[in-house]
Amino acid sequence: MDWFIRDFDHPAYFTIYADKVADAAMEGPALVAMLDLPAGSQVLDLPCGWGRLNPHLRAQGLKVIGGDLSPLNLAKHRASHPIPLVRLDFRALPFRAACVDGVFCAFTSWGYFATEQENLRQLTEFARVVRRHGVLLLDLAGRAFLQAAMTAVEGEWLEFAEEGYRECARWSPDGRRILTERSCQGEPFCHDIWIPTDAEVRSFLDAAGFSVSDAYGGLDGRPWDEGAERWIYRAIKR
Ligand SMILES: C[S@@+](CC[C@H](N)C(=O)[O-])C[C@H]1O[C@@H](n2cnc3c(N)ncnc32)[C@H](O)[C@@H]1O
Known about the structure:
The chain is α/β, with parallel strands linked by helices. The protein is built from eight helices and eleven strands. The protein folds into two domains: about 5-140 and about 195-235, 3-Layer(aba) Sandwich (Rossmann fold); about 145-190, no CATH class.
């Protein structure tokens, strides 16, 4: 089974990422401002997860449909933010072509697939459903920042006792992906995420039919830079 089917669809996911609940208060308004679509625009929140950013999208007056692969996340989302929600896989979106004004893709939700074709497919599906001149906001972790952050701890098991899990991260032998093993609630988990270079992000966006209009290096809207913790791309469908 692909890691992302099971790892996100397990109660432990909400324990491991508990801090993202509080982060939403800062991330939501900032990312919605970078999406920069007028009130009334139709937006797909892909993936929507458990809906932690949904109130901020709606506060901007956006009409939001959420989509995610995880039934557990969708159930949690439905319980707290009952908007239209669809269970889906990025590789085959169940929407008509050009039916929305924007796609909002927050918190490192690209690069999960094992092959470049599938990772490109996610972006071409986003491009297919966005109208011409519509917007994709793609919020990724900066590769150089991760490289620097992992230097001292790569391959070591770190304890997060208060949060209730331990983890060990390492680069794949070809240096393209980060494999993060975790142990939580007595069970093993392993994220396996492609961490692209800036040139790769831009070339994949271009190949999918998007042109980057803005690139940010932080939630405060600072310009993109190589060492930034977040690489946030606003791209326009050609
Ligand atoms: C890191 S979370 C981000 C969720 C949300 N954007 C947020 O900021 O809270 C990644 C999400 O991607 C979903 N996901 C993973 N693989 C997927 C796929 N192939 N198709 C659709 N959603 C997927 C997971 O279920 C999970 O909810």
